[in-house]
Amino acid sequence: MQNENGWFNNFIWDDLSINTSYKTSVAEPSWWSWRAFWALEAALPKLKKSDTVLAKKVEMALDRLVQNIKSYLKNLPIGIKTVQGIEVPTNLPFKSATDQTSILLVALTLNYQRTQNPEIIKLIRPLAEGILKMQIINGKAKGAFLSWENQWHAYGNLQSYALLKVGALLNKEKYTKAALVEINNFYPYLWKNKMFSNIKFRKRNNKTKVINVQEFAQIAYGIRPIIYANVEAYKQTGETKYKTKALKWLSWFNGNNSASIKMYNSENGRCFDGILSKTQINKNSGAESTIEALLSIAAVNSITKTN
Known about the structure:
By secondary structure, the protein is of the alpha+beta class. It is 50% helix and 12% strand. It has helices at 31-50, 52-74, 98-115, 118-132, 159-170, 173-192, 220-237, 240-250, 287-304, and strands at residues 11-12, 18-19, 80-83, 86-89, 151-153, 198-204, 207-214, 264-265, 270-271, 274-275, 281-282. The strands form five sheets. The protein has a three-stranded antiparallel beta sheet, with no helix packed on it. Strands 1-2 form a two-stranded antiparallel sheet. Strands 3-4 form a two-stranded antiparallel sheet.
């Protein structure tokens, strides 16, 4: 799936040829390249034990990708943009996309742990600082990390998990603390309101207010990041409350949601594609939803079951 330009395409056609033209499959610095980065770094330690030939190919692919990332990040414009009174950085992927940044950060953290390349730390720090600048510091959504410009959305919002990883890697408490502010404040706000899919904000007189809320659609890809963050918080702090919260959020899949409908079927391992309203769900079961449900279960199992 790695294109000649070093980035990754995202989809294949029915004949197994690579889709290089659709807008969400173009080989470029975007979601699918960051996900490929994370996936390959996570798989590499196991591949080295089971398939050394494939492991070498993966290392070569990662080296190409990291070189692309270095060039891409170096050329991002450093600055601040104001949206609805909120100042956001411009030196993140897609200028202020902390959702994408968080995935990239997790992958870079794994890469540094493997390579011990000090140049990777130079990439990690400004990205983590950019995420910090996007955190809501007051109001009922206190702690939320904006996904892009003045809006938060649930899907792929992995900022707290990424900052916990970076905080542990660099031994920097400010990243860990910022992550815990979201986990301890914003996540309970979401749970109390039976989850949201999108929130927009405005800042006036140093006060940040919610100006628009969308409750639906709710999808597994919006729940898994919250579970990951709580699981990691438990692993790092040992505080039981985070295990409890992770279990509570996992119950979303078992019907503890705004539609009171079971989303995950443990008999066939499938997950429905989303909650459309308080009375309607999308009964399709795509790969993303099923994988996100299984990742959520696996994450919680890592802190509740002994091997």
